Amino acid sequence: MNTHSGQAIADAQAARTSDVDWRALYARAITDPEELLRRLELPLSLLPGALAGNSLFRLRVPEPLLERMRPGDVADPLLRQVLPLEAEAMEAAGFDPDPVGDLQAMAVPGVLHKYSGRALIVTTGACAVNCRYCFRRSFPYSDAQTGGHRWQAALAYLRQDRSISEVILSGGDPLVLSDHKLAAMVRDLESITHINRLRIHSRLPVVLPQRVDDALLGWLRRSRLQRVVVLHANHANELDHNVELACRRLRDTGVTLLNQAVLLRGVNDDTDTLARLSERLFAIGVLPYYLHVLDRVQGAAHFLVEEPEAKRLLQELASMLPGYLVPRLAREDAGEPNKTLLLPATD
Ligand SMILES: *Cc1c(COP(=O)(O)O)cnc(C)c1O
Ligand code: SF4
Prior knowledge:
Radius of gyration: 20 Å
Bound molecules: pyridoxal-5'-phosphate, iron/sulfur cluster
Order of helices and strands: HHHHHHEEEHEHEHHEHEHEHEE
Strand content: 5-15%
Number of domains: 2
């Protein structure tokens, strides 16, 4: 078989899975630790720990992501991001429920206006996947998002502050919302003349690429706003052929694609893995943007890579890759007017 027909077969297979409605795949996500272990042919001795972690923050992994994990491999870098562990119950000094100080920066419920020119909107608390290291594992979403009547208050805030030119839809994950809702939100934002950029922070094009369907592309294409989608992938194995197709479709509608990753012990804490991630991202049309050091959220201490080691890794990465494939190493600090850049350093 030559590479051409191999590609054609891969395209045809991807087309079949992308026919499956994303909402069905979203609803069918695996939430039972025992089912996860069974599906991946992992020892049931892992179950008590998984149940303990699950009781703190629920397991959630969509099927299309599960398919990219290696059966029988407990060290699989994608599995590590989603498998609940006993270790999550351990208290660790300096690890808190709200490590990034988001609640202090809330201008009106659901609107974080911390950075000059940019306002971030917490559109929903839901996600397609529950990442064990996520700072949102204990974020009080019920009070702090723009659902229902809160949207009008959020809009009023954006309208009265002419310094805001970019709106970031975040969450949770904004792309779990329906296209009907999202299109209506974007129309409201477009009516505010000083807003000219729309940024969407989402892990769905990676973990559930079927989300990038005609309805989504429709409202994105029609918008007068410049559009940036910031993906979240931590390992090259996450970026399969369906993700590549989703990225191609997004770019074809004029969307700029960036990626943010988190530096995670046992997932991507070596330069070869980070280099492969950058190379694969670029191959599918995405520029590496941020590499975050871990937010010190309770339950995630076992993922920590300390800053001196993080800096060493990034320096080595910079010696391996062209500059545009080296992400910015950043840390989120409570109360600061921007993310703190560790490399390249800003002072
Ligand atoms: C990360 C972040 C932004 C965007 O920062 P950039 O450096 O422009 O990517 C905006 N608001 C909040 C609250 C953030 O955490
Ligand atoms: S907000 Fe992002 S990192 Fe956190 S659980 Fe959702 S998808 Fe994962």
